[in-house]
Predict the 3D structure of the following.
Amino acid sequence: MKRISMTYGQVLFELGIKKESLQKAQDMLHENEELLSALENPTITKKEKENVVEKLFSDDIKSFLKVVCDNDDIACFDEAVEYYDELKRKTDKIIKAEFDYVTMPKDEQLERIKQYLMKQYQADKVELTLKEEKDLIGGFVLKVGDHVYDNSLSGKMRKLQQKLTWRHCRKQIQNGNKICHECNQSSC
């Protein structure tokens, strides 16, 4: 995420703009490519862009969008809203997680996962996105922010392969080879 998007997201958050207004603005920009193109177009004057914003958007977001357009940063709007959402979740003690699975977990399993996440991250609520991933072969992968809990069969196989490769390379190097000729590794 760009720093400028984070700055705009912080401003949206501090202004207290409602999520509904942001969603309506995003929907309008996504549904009308000509509108987004016009607001991004450097050949269209700032005054013309301000007039468009004045006519189309709700009062609580007009001033913000005018500044964004004046700075030719409308392309950052989606990321700014994404960062706003992140700040809002943090303030409301809500964490966002993704649960990738092969076999859909039962409701009680999902509830235990949510309880675990709330305890682990001191959250009041969990927004859990479920995603079927047949490539995992078995098990699951749980993603929370930058943390990934990989309890999948494919993940375990990958770790085993890395461990075996590491042992092989280490043995080659211990035998006096400066480099493992099979995998071109100089060290593990």
